[in-house]
Amino acid sequence: MKFMLLPAAVLLCFSASIQAETQPEVDCNNAMTTPELNACAEKTFNEADKKLNQAYQALMKTLSQPDEDGLPYSKVKSNLREGQRAWVTFRQKDCDAVFALHSGGTIRSVMYWGCMTDRTSKRTEELTSYIYNE
């Protein structure tokens, strides 16, 4: 009996994987159901997060130069790396609080992803301003 359960479990996992891969992409311009709205909110966050990572990498590359008189690039880079890690923790905890605040309703995931997107977009602007020294 045990030997029959293992192939069944593997088959179940495989079929779930195939189903997830074959689901059509949601049209976010016409999303109406809760799952569609959640998927679109998460997609928007993923796009914002990609921009954040690009801005962060560009800034770290800019700071990858030898220290000059009055410009301790290595210290700035080290502080920025540490600050970014702390910011990621802040963003997660802050948006977890938003999710918990709305835990009684179906809007909770949209609110969570909206929070993550908002915080991420603002941080992208901050990192971009470092690059241009604004």
From TrEMBL:
**UniProt-listed InterPro entries:** LprI-like_N
Signal peptide positions (record): 1-20
Kindly state which keywords UniProt assigns to this record, in alphabetical order.
Answer: Signal
Q: Does the keyword Signal apply?
A: yes
Give residue ranges for domain Lysozyme inhibitor LprI-like N-terminal: 28-127
Report whether NADP shows up as a keyword of the record.
Answer: no
State the PANTHER family in the record.
PERIPLASMIC PROTEIN (PTHR39176:SF1), PERIPLASMIC PROTEIN-RELATED (PTHR39176)
The name under which this protein is listed is Lysozyme inhibitor LprI-like N-terminal domain-containing protein
